[in-house]
């Protein structure tokens, strides 16, 4: 990445997910990156252990519980104690289904539940917003910085022609509204911060696993491919791109 200079600091939230881990690996091997904070609830998991073993001291695991506002605040406070600033923050997490909790994408109105709505909103909308709230001070400095959240095309109200998946669509639309709003505010008070909503496409991950049989040939992407594509768009983003909703192939998605 040409826009990450020497001694750059990065935070990837959701680092043990398929896409998050791919981001961590690529960024840890990026020339100039000093530290990659790898945030996850599962800091002692085999995935995190493998990241640390592969990337060495560049990767620093940090615990966060995304449904707990105090945990998000504590994560930001710890980073601030050890890192003067962040140059890139990527929210690489999301929830679509949770079999243990009985949460599945809805096919009709009768499938809606308060539990499903709340779980989707907490992870997909509230968590990115609170991360932005507590980490803006780390991003707001003399150098360029990017705040990027993985969204989903199905969060586009304009693009919705199929219906269903109410909780996921609603929570992603809320996340998109936050990203757009943060971009507008940053243009006034943190002008070097670029805020992006990114659609990764259908990626081979636990989130998409139950639905992969419906994916057209050639449209199921590896996590590493997705990380490569999205990092390229992050690298090219200019201040005038702040507040955009961008797909993996660079196309703008309507809100």
UniProtKB/TrEMBL annotation:
Domain of life: Bacteria
Coiled coil region boundaries: none
Organism the protein comes from: Spiribacter salilacus
One GO MF term: oxidoreductase activity
Name the record gives this protein: SDR family NAD(P)-dependent oxidoreductase
PANTHER family: NAD(P)-BINDING ROSSMANN-FOLD SUPERFAMILY PROTEIN, SHORT-CHAIN DEHYDROGENASE/REDUCTASE
One protein family per Pfam: adh_short
Gene3D superfamilies: NAD(P)-binding Rossmann-like Domain
Entry GO terms, CC: cytoplasm
């Amino acid at each position: 990445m040409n826009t990450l200079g020497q001694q750059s600091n990065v935070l990837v939230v959701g680092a043990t997910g398929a896409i998050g881990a791919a981001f961590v690996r690529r960024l840890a091997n990026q020339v100039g990156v000093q530290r990659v904070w790898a945030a996850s609830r599962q800091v002692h998991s085999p995935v995190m252990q493998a990241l640390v073993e592969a990337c060495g001291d560049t990767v620093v695991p940090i615990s966060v519980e995304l449904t707990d506002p105090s945990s998000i605040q504590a994560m930001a406070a710890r980073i601030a104690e050890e890192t003067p600033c962040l140059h890139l923050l990527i929210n690489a997490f999301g929830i679509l289904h949770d079999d243990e909790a009985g949460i599945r994408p809805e096919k009709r109105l009768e499938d809606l539940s308060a539990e499903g709505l709340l779980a989707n909103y907490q992870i997909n909308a509230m968590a990115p917003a609170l991360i932005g709230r507590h980490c803006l001070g780390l991003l707001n400095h003399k150098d360029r910085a990017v705040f990027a959240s993985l969204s989903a095309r199905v969060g586009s109200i304009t693009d919705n022609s199929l219906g269903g998946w109410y909780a996921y669509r609603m929570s992603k639309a809320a996340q998109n509204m936050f990203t757009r709003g943060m971009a507008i505010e940053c243009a006034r008070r943190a002008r070097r911060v670029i805020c992006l909503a990114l659609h990764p496409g259908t990626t081979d991950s636990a989130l998409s696993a139950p639905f992969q049989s419906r994916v057209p040939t050639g449209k199921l992407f590896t996590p590493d491919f997705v990380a490569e594509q999205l990092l390229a768009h992050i690298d090219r983003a200019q201040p005038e791109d702040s507040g955009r909703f961008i797909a993996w192939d660079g196309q703008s998605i309507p809100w």
